[in-house]
Amino acid sequence: MNRPLKAVLIASLLAVTTAGSAVAAEIYKRPGLYSIDAEGWDLQPGQDGALILRCRDCKTPVQVQIDYSPERTGEAAKGGNKAFLARLDTADAQKQFAELMVESSLPEEIEVGEDVEIEIATVSKAKVGGLDVFQYVALIDGGGKVTQESSLVAIQRNRIVKVALNHYQGALDEAEKNRIAALFKSLSFD
């Protein structure tokens, strides 16, 4: 085979392989649980199988974390997502649950009321990625910039799933909001 033709074939093969890899690498799948299009996001493994996505081009820190609990067993395993959401039947129950979720995610050394103030701005139920979820927005004030946590919680395959978006309140521009919206639109629960 002549050298120029061989070089063209190798270059073509590399271009196809590289393009195929780039496209395949954008969709992140956790088989049996979810898939998400991570284009524009850096993926990092968290503790216990969590996935952390950090916005690559955002001017301000923007992070999404997807966590699953261990599989529930015994009494905890009774009742699935429908029963979980039914227990959140009032605005007060929803607000209390959201406060519990936020407080449990803070480091142990941080005292709510002394070190940080938490305000639950909104609570609601919705369908995201084909799964009925409870969602809330919490504002966390540690004395500096206020962090906004927008989370959804549900029971999927007998595990508690929490997807949390964190950023500074009021810091997002339109491009960043669109990138976040595209990420959540691509989220699909299996």
Radius of gyration: 20 Å
Largest sheet: 7 strands, antiparallel
Report strand %: 35-45%
Query: Can you count the beta strands?
Result: 10
Please state the overall shape, judged from the principal axes of the Cα atoms: globular
The assigned structural class equals: alpha+beta
- Tell me, rounded to a whole number, the average pLDDT: 85
The secondary-structure element order is HEEEEEHHEEEEHE
Q: What is the rounded distance between the termini? A: 49 Å
Helix content: 25-40%
Q: Which terms would index this structure?
A:
single chain; 190 residues; alpha+beta; seven-stranded antiparallel β-sheet; three-stranded antiparallel β-sheet; 4 helices; 10 strands; 37% strand; disordered N terminus
Describe this structure in words.
This protein has 190 residues and is of the alpha+beta class. It has helices at residues 3-26, 81-87, 91-105, 174-186, and strands spanning 27-30, 34-37, 41-45, 51-55, 62-68, 117-128, 131-141, 146-156, 159-168, 188-189. Strands 3-4-5-9-8-7-6 form a 7-stranded antiparallel β-sheet, with helices on both faces.
